[in-house]
Design brief:
Layout lengths: L3 E8 L8 H9 L3 E5 L21 E5 L16 E5 L6 E5 L8 E7 L5 E8 L9 H20 L3 E7 L9 H12 L2 E3 L10 E2 L6 E2 L2 E6 H4 L2 E7 L10 E7 L3 H4 L3 H6 L10 H16 L5 H5 L6 H25 L15 H20 L2 H11 L17 H17 L9
Parallel strand pairs: 1-2, 7-8
Antiparallel strand pairs: 1-14, 2-4, 3-4, 5-6, 6-7, 8-12, 9-12, 10-11, 13-14
Helix pairs in contact: 2-3, 2-10, 7-9, 10-11
Amino acid sequence: MSNKVSIISYNCQCANDSKLPFLRELFDECDFMLIQEHGLYKSQFGWFDNINEVNGVGKHGMSAMNEEKQSAGRPYGGTAIIWKHGLNVKVEPKITESDSKRLSAVIVTLENQKRLLLGSIYMPCDDRCQNANLVEFQQVLNEIDILMNELNPDFACFGGDFNTDVSRDTFQTRCFLNFFADYHICTQDELCDFDFTFSSKGSNHKSLIDHFVLTDSLVEALQVYECIDTVNNFSDHVAVKCQLDLYMSEFSDISEHEEQTKKCYNWSIANQEELDRYVDMLSEILHLLVIPYCALNCREKHCQRHSRELNEFHDKIVDACLNAAFHVMCKSSQKPKCKVIPGWNEHVEVYFKNALLATAIASGSTRSFWSEVKKYNRSKNVSRYPNVDGVQGKDSIAGMFADKFDGLYNSVSSVNWIW
């Protein structure tokens, strides 16, 4: 594989033989293809080999079709990622804990051992309401969040039919923008030169709902971002292509300053003189920053312009702290083994787990609920029989609960319950 990696995202609206000519055209132009709404059963994934009749394709996907049921109407849903054989990379399929049918993901290990997370996404329709579709939309975002935190890749690229037009002010659009802003993942809509990616053949309604989303570390690597559409395209969607140069100097030749700022600053051994110098230098740098007063005083909750200004201001403050520490602080020789988020365990983790559990309950999915309960209670050091109100041992605890329930049950006289 050359320095440039080409990725195409395409909602094919049912993978069948009539779609093969266009799929073959697209596959000739890319290394990886992210496919949505293929409508295939899991047992039919061998059909993807028809896209490259000579060598076949590498493939990983999720099916929304139930093998045990006879489905009426046209096939629906599903996501997949296919790639060319012979690429000098290692591709590992990743399956989310909820087994989501709307997200297929692979980890691509490059020649320089950098790891790229690729995801093909097919989101539910935006009906502009706070209902089951929005809950499902948030569940897919949660799965992305879990993958990012568990795999901690060097880069991430998500492409697909997000069913979200960022020009609309809807609940789903706000959720989309807020989520990716929080994780410093930027949409590339502002770089494209096309007005739509979906055009309804029935109503001719047009919208830009197919996107690529990149981590900040890939923004400078983006070389091409374009649409592909020919007479062989029988889908309402056009294909979207992005080309990344993953071996640019920004990634291979890390400067001494960048290398140093990646190290841990050993605050515990810093003397008072170093701390005073750090405070003085940080104060000097911060005094040079221009404070965005209009953005700070804005009371519009979803103001995009001021959100960008605040994010930029935040990044400048972080850079100021790192620059001051780089010049005056002692540095340890060890790098952190994993991505560390200060204060996560103390202030965030319990709320994050509660939010995932609440989402699972709200969705009405029994499987998702118990999956979240299992993750919530996961611990290596949990006592088998805990202490409950001073009572220990499984038999004693069970007896206590029985007594409490018996007292509660007998404390209420006959009531005519109305359901």
